[in-house]
Design goal:
The chain contains six helices and 17 strands. By secondary structure, the protein is an alpha/beta fold.
């Protein structure tokens, strides 16, 4: 891939894959940090019947809060139970609101007791930890905003076999470091291509409103941060309505 092709890939929206797209959360800029038109913190959610977070039983995992709860509170208002995680806020585990549970944990590619004073766990370890609370429910929406660590986490999610437990995911993608080679950026593309080869269908991509512009190995200027969202093709193709009127997807152990 050339530099231009790499940037075209990150910006590819694939909007036609989702007929009903809605943005949840987000705050208007009050500190002059917004560089691109838009609302920082909003996440794209596909509301097509086959993959929508359903009714009063949906489950959200939200990684990266930074004291900005608009997405989590919007998903709570929609009807979801939200498990929120952020080790950088110096807050203990607590009940943020009726359906939002906060944990002083970070998402990583391996379990680590201490990392910069933070407790880090993989997605599979956190899911196992919380199974007594939500059983084997599908994660209807997985939000990942972890400031550059998403690349190793995505590989771990695939390798650990957690993708079948995810209905939709939205990731804030960071193209750091700014002085990296074109080979480095090609490897970032390969990570997302691997995610999509394993059944995740992209339905949205936006430039993050706080994204900076830089001139890197490509030899031209472009943005460094994107909000990309996917749904799981497995759940789209296997959506069903149960006899009691609830909707969900049967999981094969």
């Amino acid at each position: 891939m050339t530099g231009h092709q790499i940037m075209e890939y990150f910006k590819w929206t694939n909007h036609s894959s989702c007929q009903i797209l809605h943005y949840f959360g987000g705050v208007y800029d009050s500190a002059g940090l917004i560089r691109v038109p838009g609302i920082d913190g909003q996440k794209a959610v596909c509301l097509d019947y086959e993959v929508e977070p359903f009714g009063d039983t949906c489950l959200v995992y939200s990684f990266g809060i930074n004291n900005e709860w608009s997405f989590d509170e919007a998903m709570q208002k929609y009807g979801c139970y939200v498990f929120a995680f952020d080790p950088s806020m110096n807050k203990e585990d607590h009940q943020h609101s009726k359906r939002i549970h906060f944990y002083n944990l970070g998402l990583a590619s391996e379990d680590a007791s201490i990392r910069n004073g933070w407790n880090m766990k993989t997605l599979s370890s956190i899911y196992t930890m919380l199974r007594p609370k939500h059983g084997d429910m599908i994660i209807d929406y997985l939000k990942i905003d972890i400031e550059g660590d998403e690349w190793h986490v995505i590989d771990n999610i695939i390798d650990s076999g957690m993708l079948p437990k995810i209905r939709q995911m939205g990731v804030e993608i960071h193209m750091w470091p700014v002085n990296a080679t074109i080979s480095y950026h090609r490897n970032l593309v390969k990570t997302l291509q691997r995610l999509e080869a394993n059944g995740m269908v992209r339905f949205n991509s936006l430039i993050n409103p706080t994204s900076s512009i830089y001139i890197d190995a490509f030899g031209f200027s472009d943005y460094t941060c994107y909000e990309i969202a996917w749904y799981n093709r497995y759940h789209y193709n296997n959506s069903t309505e149960f006899k009691d009127g609830t909707k969900g997807t049967k999981i094969k152990d």
